Amino acid sequence: MLRLYSLILLLMVSMTVQATDFPRTSAVPGGIIIIPLKTTGNTAPHVYYGKNQVMVEKTDMGWQAVVGLPLSIKPGLHAIEVKGKKVSTISFNVKAKTYPEQHITLKNKRMVNPYKKDLVRIFREKKIIIAALKHWSDSSTELSPFKMPVTGIVSSPFGLRRFFNGQPRKPHSGLDIAAPVGTPVYAPAAGRVIATGKYFFNGNTVFIDHGQGLVTMYCHLHNIDVKKGDVVKRGEKFANVGMTGRVTGPHLHWGVSLNNARIDPRLLLSQ
């Protein structure tokens, strides 16, 4: 009986630790890894993974780096560079992960094989989208669990290896949430709108900066209620679900970029 009680207590403690662990870590492509830093003092060090600056947080245990792992990352050893009083590197290991395939049939073949004039537009828009997703601002709110931006059903999870009309395309870099046109879209965390636009593939889109390289993206919107520079609070409505751009039905594509790496949005949700 005592042994059973001990096991139950251990399970309760384990569940409590998992419930308060944020953000959730997953050392795989599209995941997050948290790396403790040896830096002391009140001045945050500058940390880089490749060419991209990394979010740094101060906790009761000291400074830590919150690193987003791109879907293209290879399994094995990698390293971050820490620039404080001295420059040092810290290695970390990434595990392999194979995401499922998803085959989608689009009636509008132009969304699979765009016309020549479409490619000019797509190339121009791609530069704008990449610039927004790699945006960096030193200001940040306290990193806390996100809320789902819309009420609906997850129709396409993150990381799927996609095929459109049988043709391979880049992996799915966000979370698709199916909901009727007009369903309200809410900010999952406080932030500032850094860009809005109407794009060939993404349709009506909003980008929100949450500080230190954490940017969220919302695509295929019906309408947008905010403009560049607006500040949004956690839970504030800023758009409605639509079916603009490359879609097969009404849904929200929710993307999260951390140090210019597209990560699984679910890692930022409260359990």
Walk me through this protein's architecture.
Helices cover 14% and strands 39% of the residues. The chain is mainly beta and 271 residues long. It folds into 2 domains: 2-94, Peptidoglycan hydrolase domains (Immunoglobulin-like, Sandwich), CATH 2.60.40; 101-268, Glucose Permease (Domain IIA) (Distorted Sandwich), CATH 2.70.70. Strands 8, 11, 12, 13, 14, 15, 16, 17, 18 and 19 form a 10-stranded antiparallel β-sheet that branches. A 6-stranded antiparallel β-sheet has the order 1-4-3-2-5-6, with no helix packed on it. The longest helix has 19 residues, at 2-20. The model is unreliable at 1-20 (pLDDT under 50).
* CATH architectural grouping of the largest domain: Distorted Sandwich
Mean pLDDT: 90
> What is the number of strand segments?
19
What's the name of the CATH homologous superfamily of the largest domain?
A: Glucose Permease (Domain IIA)
What's this model, at a glance?
With 271 residues, the chain is mostly beta strands.
Keywords:
mainly beta, Immunoglobulin-like, globular, Glucose Permease (Domain IIA), ten-stranded antiparallel beta sheet, 271 residues, 2 domains, single chain
Question: What topology does this entry show?
Answer:
Elements: H1 2-20, E1 32-36, E2 46-49, E3 52-59, E4 62-68, E5 76-83, E6 87-94, E7 101-104, H2 116-133, E8 153-156, E9 161-164, E10 167-168, E11 174-178, E12 184-186, E13 191-199, E14 203-209, E15 214-224, E16 231-232, E17 237-241, E18 251-258, E19 261-263
Parallel strand pairs: 7-9
Antiparallel strand pairs: 1-4, 2-3, 2-5, 3-4, 5-6, 8-11, 9-10, 11-18, 12-17, 13-14, 13-16, 14-15, 15-17, 15-18, 18-19
